[in-house]
């Protein structure tokens, strides 16, 4: 049976396991056989790129206090009266430029579905019907709440919640976990739960990144002068307040460099997607690629290790805006190395992380 919202196949026997408990009266509610749920979570996507779809999505995203932590008394009037009257048009145009028209969805949705199908197949091969795999989005659809409810209805008495962010940040991993916990508040019978920690230094994740770089470089006649590891930015203030994101990003770059056997001059760390007036983590990717071009680095490659799937920030921002900045400054050859997406090495890494976090729950 196909779940219409997620595109993930649910085995027919999973839909017919509800039974009345032994020794219970006939009118006792039926209960499904126990299983474990693995719920993958990504950032989210608008349902379409029209004005109102974009406005609903951006309103939910930019109203999250984990994302924008300014006082609502200041921020909400600015958001509702100014930002959300203009930004849906520009963001909608950006989404339209990368939209999967055939499937009627954003690339992030297409890729997350593909990742889920592959993870589900590996989990079924290893654990049979004891583990149920699905996905949700922090913003937009399918919602975290709807997927938590579906897992509980399917008999999941334990749920492993897996935010698909290699690096922990309050504005990504934490807000995804927040939404998961809020969803549990509405449940009469809450399942036992675990959340998956950041996997920025997991050997198989580093290996998958390295293999993607090696494949890309092998196809080039002339190698890039430098590899730019562009991570999504956060305000510099967050680092000062204890968020570990910056340090984890730096470690991923170092581990990738060591795995590739490179010198420090062959790789660098930058941060993209700055929003608002305050200072964010530096160097800013859009400025750094221009500086590299001006100082003689005419061939560069850019990879985005913090994104588990290609999305608006990679397909549009990196491959269009950041590329344009590099070329306008005199750069000649710009290569974007895609995210790991549903590459088999990436799926192997994700499943290894899942296996580690299922220990004690299932053999």
Write the layout of secondary structure elements.
Blueprint: E1 35-45, H1 51-62, H2 72-98, H3 107-127, E2 131-140, H4 144-153, E3 156-163, H5 170-184, E4 192-195, H6 203-218, E5 226-232, H7 236-240, H8 245-260, E6 267-272, H9 285-294, E7 299-303, H10 312-328, E8 333-337, H11 344-358
Parallel strand pairs: 1-2, 1-3, 3-4, 5-6, 5-7, 7-8
Helix pairs in contact: 1-2, 3-11, 4-5, 6-8, 6-11, 9-10
Question: What is the structure about, briefly put?
Answer:
Helix content is 45%, strand content 15%.
Q: Can you walk through the features of this model?
A:
Helix content is 45%, strand content 15%. Helix 6 (203-218) runs antiparallel to helix 11. The chain has helices at 51-62, 72-98, 107-127, 144-153, 170-184, 203-218, 236-240, 245-260, 285-294, 312-328, 344-358; strands at residues 35-45, 131-140, 156-163, 192-195, 226-232, 267-272, 299-303, 333-337. By secondary structure, the protein is α/β, with parallel strands linked by helices. The protein has 2 domains: 12-199 and 344-358, Rossmann fold (3-Layer(aba) Sandwich); 203-337, 3-Layer(aba) Sandwich (Rossmann fold). The protein is globular, with a radius of gyration of 22 Å.
